[in-house]
Amino acid sequence: MLKTLSGRFLFLTIIFVMLAEILIFVPSIARFREDYLLSRLERAQIASLALLADEMIDEKLEAELLENAEVYNVVLRRDEIRQLMLSSPMPAPIDQTFDLRDRKAMTLIMDAMARLFNPEPEVIRVIGAPVREAGLLIEVTIWTKDLRSAMIDYGLNILLLSAVISVFTATLLFVAVRTILVKPIKGVVGYMQSYAAAPEDARRIIQPSAGVVELREAEEALQSLQTELTSALRQKERLAQLGGAVAKVSHDLRNILTSAQLFTDRIEMSEDPTVKRMAPKLVNSITRAVNLCEGTLAYGKAEEPAPRLTQVNLPELVEDVLASERLAVGDFDLSLADNVPGGMEVRADAEQLYRVISNLVRNARQAIISAGKPAEIMVSAEAREDDWVIQVVDTGPGLPLKAKEHLFQPFQGGARKGGTGLGLAISAELIRGHGGKLELLGSDDAGTRFQILLPKGDFAEI
Fold first, then answer.
1. In this structure, what are the phi and psi dihedrals at residue 89, rounded to the nearest 5 degrees?
2. Which residue numbers delimit the Histidine kinase domain (predicted)?
């Protein structure tokens, strides 16, 4: 039982109530002793009144008066005269004297504890003030055996009452804690266990109902967490299904494009000047489409294939990208230019680098055309000591805030309405596969700047 919250609370409540009662017990015993002695003084004073009324009383009546007052001697001081009113033989000499006219709490407590823990009976003198001002003082002698017995009986009654109060209080608190705290906590645990069994089932999400503020806050936090997790699991399932569908489409599309390659081989043999000029670009485009489908199939399995690093003629690759984009621009006032040194070669996978640069230029072109304002896209490159730097700069409208926050995250970093953000996520992964880095240098109303860093390495390794 002590392993449960309510059981521990019950045990601690009993302990704390008993400690409180013990702290009350000490002054209570001191007060009981004081009242006991005062009552004996009062009885003695009443007994002495009989002698004042009739100065001649027999010994039998005197003994009966002292027995009823539970004292041995009574001394009364009236009008500065100290007079022995009643007396009887004492069993022992007087050991101590206690004056109750000057009562200090600590003194009373110390005297009471000393009497309680001293089992030897003694004869003590007690001095006090007579009630109703019937003299200057009254003094009695009493036997402490009866005093200590009365104190022990009173103390046992106090302890027994304390135990009953402790158990009763603890039981009430136990029931209250189970009702107000433990039962709602068990309800939350039950919701968590039920949700863990089927996290995709939105019906198992907890509905806050606790009346205690702290518990309700915990329930609301759990509800928010479960809602987000359920949504994430659903999205993950949809992405898995989408991945499977894309893989199937890519597989069939690859077969179709492979067939198209066979026809383009014959087109290249045409003598028509226009066909001769356009055929190589058509062949390159279909080849890249086939490679993209194969890459998509590989990505659906686990990840992008490792880059096949070769020496790539960067000016030719950039020109192919820009030529393809110029066809998509049409009559729109958009300038596509490059500033790549002639004959510059980089160490990269040609197909993957083409996809990255094409993706960046395409995103810029689509954003500029959507904005409807004339602009320019510039692809530049330079060779540094340790790496090659390729920049794609445009003078378009800049990236939206949401796109900046989730720039390279799939399905979150889309830069235009309807975009998925997959292009930038895949591009960043491809560049990381080269040991490089794709980063956003800046984006505002004046345009956007992306930078690709490719490490040089040693050409002898190729």
1. -60, 140
2. 248-458
What residues does each domain of the chain span? 5-171, 307-461
Residue 179's identity, in one-letter code, is T
Which backbone phi and psi does 440 adopt, to 5 degrees? -95, 120
- Is the whole-model pTM more than 0.70? no
Q: Which CATH class is domain 307-461?
A: alpha beta
Which comes out higher in pLDDT, residue 245 or 26?
Answer: 26
